[in-house]
Amino acid sequence: MNDQDLQRWQQLDREHFLHPFTDHRELGLRGTRVITRAEGAYLWDAAGNRLLDAMSGLWCVNLGYGRQELVAAATQQLQTLPYYNSFFQCTHPPAIELAADLCAIAPPGFNRVFFTNSGSEANDTVIRLVRYYWSLLGKPDKQVIIARRNAYHGSTVGAASLCGMPWMHAQAGLPIPGIVHIEEPYWFGQNAIEDPEAFGRHVARQLAATIDRLGVDKVAAFIAEPVQGAGGAIIPPASYWPEIQRICDEHGILLVADEVITGFGRLGQWFGSQHFGIRPDLMSFAKGVTCGYQPLGGVMVGDRVAEVLVAKGGEFFHGFTYSGHPVACAVARANLRLMREERVIEHLQASLIPAFSRRWQQLGSHPLVGEARSAGLIGALELVSDKSARRRFAKELRAGERCRDFCIEQGLVMRAVGDTMIVAPPFILTETQLDELVDKAWRALDLTQQALGAAAGA
Ligand SMILES: *Cc1c(COP(=O)(O)O)cnc(C)c1O
Known about the structure:
By secondary structure, the chain is of the alpha/beta class. It contains 16 helices and 15 strands. The protein folds into two domains: 33-66 and 344-457, Aspartate Aminotransferase, domain 1 (Alpha-Beta Complex), CATH 3.90.1150.10; 69-341, Aspartate Aminotransferase, domain 2. The protein is 44% helix and 16% strand. Pyridoxal-5'-phosphate (PLP) binds next to α6.
C-alpha cells in the first residue's frame, strides 16, 4: 500500500460511495480514513496508523478482530451450503442449530427465534409481530407502540419510526401511524434536580400516563433499549426498569427489549434484560450475535406471543430472502461456542467489567467531565464547561467532535454523540489496553480543554 493507493481510494470514495449517517459535503471537505486491516482490539488505516478500537466496530466486534474460528466456520459453511432459504417447508442445519442455541442461553420462556439480517429488520419484525399478535387475539385496535425519545432502533422506515430522533423523522415524513414517544431516563441530559432514583420512577410513570391517555385498548407494546446506545450511552437509574415492568404487567401490554447492543455479554450477562431483571415478551438482537463478522439479526419470541402465533395458525406474511442465512448462522454458532469455551461472560463479570468501571470512573475527575458513567462495558463521559453547575459548552464549539478528533490523533476510537463521549470496548481488552484506553482518553480531554480554552479566550 502506498500514498497513491490511499489518494485513489479517497477520490473514488468521494465520487461514488454514499456513506450511512453522513453529511457528504462535510465529508468531502474533511476527507476520509481508509481502514485496511484489524487484529485483536486494533485497527490499521491505509496511512499505517494503529488505532485502539474502543467501539468494537459499531458495538459488534465483541471478541475482537482476526478470530480464525469464525473465519473457519464461514468458510466451511460456504463450501457445504452457501445459501438456501427457509420458505416453502424448507430449512437447514445452521439456522435450526442456532435457533436452539439462542433459546438455550435466553432467559426462561424464550423458545422461538425469527431471523433477519440486521437490527433494523429485527425491529420492523417486532412491529409486525406485536400488531399481528393482538389481532390474532381479536384486538386489532391494539396497534400503538410506545417508544422513547432519543431511542435508536435502526434506520428502515419502521425502525426509524420507533427511533426517538426527530431529525430522522423530519427527513422522511415519519413516524408511521401508531408510534408514540415518551421521555427517556436521561438524568444528566435533562438536568434533573431530583435525585436519580426519584427521577427514574417519575420518567417511568410517563408510560402509565400515556397508556391511560391513549386507552389501554389501543396500546400494543412498549419498546426500549435496556441501556440506550446510540442516543449517548444512557443508563437508567435502578428505579426505572422495575417501574416499567410493573406498568407493562399491570396493563397487560407487551414489553419489547431491543437487545441489539446489550445482547451477548455487553452488560455482563447474555442479555441486558437479565442485568436489569426485566422480563420482556420479545427481544430484538443483531450486532454481537456474529461478532460483526456476518450480518445477522432476529427476534427472540417469548412463549406468550409464540404460543398464540402457533395455536391460532394462519400465515405470518413476513420474512426475508436471507432470513437465517446459513453462513451468518454458522458464524453466530461459532461465536456463541467461543464465548462459552473461553468463559467470556465469567471473565467479564469477575474481571474486565469491574476493572473497566474502576478505571472509567477515574476519568470523572478530569475538569472537563461532568459525569463519568458506565454499565457493563459501555462507558460515557459528559463534557461540560462548568463541572458543579453541569453546564454544557456552547454547541458551536463542537466540544465532543474535537475530543473525538483528538482521540483519533492519539490512536483511540471513541465516539461523540453531541458532547457525550462513548466507548464500548471489546471483551478481549487486556489490562494494558485498558490503561491505554484511559490514558489516551485523558490526554484527549486535556487537548480538548486547551483547544476550547483557546477558542473561548480568542
Ligand atoms: C444498531 C442498532 C439497531 C439497528 O441495527 P442495524 O443492524 O444497524 O440495522 C437497532 N437497535 C439498536 C439498539 C442498535 O444499536
